[in-house]
């Protein structure tokens, strides 16, 4: 038994293409996020007021003195909600998450993929904060984070030397739908897309070596700090 443990301790750690640790072949983070979104969606259907208490609108970042307290965590929680009036909303987002996650999670590793997804989700809310004409308009959905995965896939494919034409076409089609179909928050799509691409560029283009992981996490932390600064700037510009 001691020999087995010693061999396991001395065995080289298997790494993904971008420095993450290989922990099996299943995209566990992808399945977990899909499961959480489905559970939350079911709870939205049976718990009155749940959607309203977790959705995001720019006013919740700033707060409204005497009326609405600042609730910045909604910038993340809204990404796990979906419209109760259309099953297509959650169906499309979960399908896209499944397809993109199956490619990106094994390439990046679980922790890096999870960080990219969550940061892109917040980036989508920052896009709404900065670009939405109505600070009282609520938004829900994983679309910002999913667009972040589209942006990440573009970066990963470019890094690997693969064809990115189909990815660009998909991004353009979905971006156009955001302007044509009413009720779609294109601001969240844009914010998530840019944020996801930035995170993926950090993960993919940091040179391999002993400092790779540290530089990747420092870079991702830098994106979070930048989103924080943009949030502060966006709050000051809100017409409240």
> Order of SSEs, N→C?
HHHHHHHHHHH
How many helix segments? 11
- Percent of residues in beta strands? under 5%
Structural class: mainly alpha
Q: Shape from CA axes? A: globular
Low-confidence stretches: none
Q: What can be said about the biggest beta sheet?
A: none
Distance between the termini: 67 Å
Mean pLDDT: 91
Radius of gyration: 19 Å
Describe what you observe in this structure:
By secondary structure, the protein is mainly α. Helices cover about 70% and strands about 0% of the residues. It is built from 11 helices and no strands. It has helices at about 1-10, 30-45, 50-55, 60, 75, 85-110, 110-130, 145-160, 165-180, 185-205, 210-235. The longest helix is centred in the C-terminal third of the chain and has 26 residues, at about 210-235. The termini are far apart.
Explain briefly what this protein structure is.
The protein is mainly α and 240 residues long.
Keywords:
11 helices, mainly alpha, 240 residues
What topology does this entry show?
Layout: H1 2-10, H2 28-46, H3 50-54, H4 58-62, H5 74-77, H6 87-108, H7 110-131, H8 143-160, H9 165-180, H10 186-205, H11 212-237
Helix pairs in contact: 2-6, 6-7, 6-8, 7-8, 7-10, 7-11, 8-9, 8-10, 10-11
């Amino acid at each position: 038994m001691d020999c087995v443990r010693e061999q396991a301790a001395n065995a080289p750690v298997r790494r993904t293409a971008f420095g993450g640790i290989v922990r099996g072949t299943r995209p566990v983070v992808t399945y977990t996020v899909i499961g959480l979104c489905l559970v939350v969606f079911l709870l939205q259907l049976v718990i009155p007021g749940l959607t309203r208490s977790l959705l995001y609108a720019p006013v919740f970042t700033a707060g409204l003195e005497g009326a609405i307290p600042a609730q910045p965590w909604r910038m993340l929680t809204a990404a796990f909600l979906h419209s109760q009036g259309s099953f297509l909303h959650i169906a499309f987002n979960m399908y896209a998450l499944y397809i993109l996650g199956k490619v990106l999670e094994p390439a990046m590793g679980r922790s890096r993929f999870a960080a990219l997804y969550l940061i892109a989700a917040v980036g989508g809310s920052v896009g709404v904060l900065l670009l939405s004409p109505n600070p009282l308009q609520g938004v829900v959905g994983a679309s910002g984070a999913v667009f972040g995965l589209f942006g990440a896939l573009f970066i990963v494919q470019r890094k690997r030397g693969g064809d990115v034409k189909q990815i660009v076409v998909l991004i353009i089609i979905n971006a156009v739908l955001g302007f044509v179909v009413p009720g779609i928050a294109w601001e969240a799509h844009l914010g998530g897309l840019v944020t996801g691409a930035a995170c993926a560029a950090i993960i993919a283009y940091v040179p391999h070596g002993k400092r790779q992981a540290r530089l990747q996490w420092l870079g991702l932390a830098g994106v979070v700090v930048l989103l924080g600064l943009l949030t502060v700037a966006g709050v000051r510009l809100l017409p409240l």
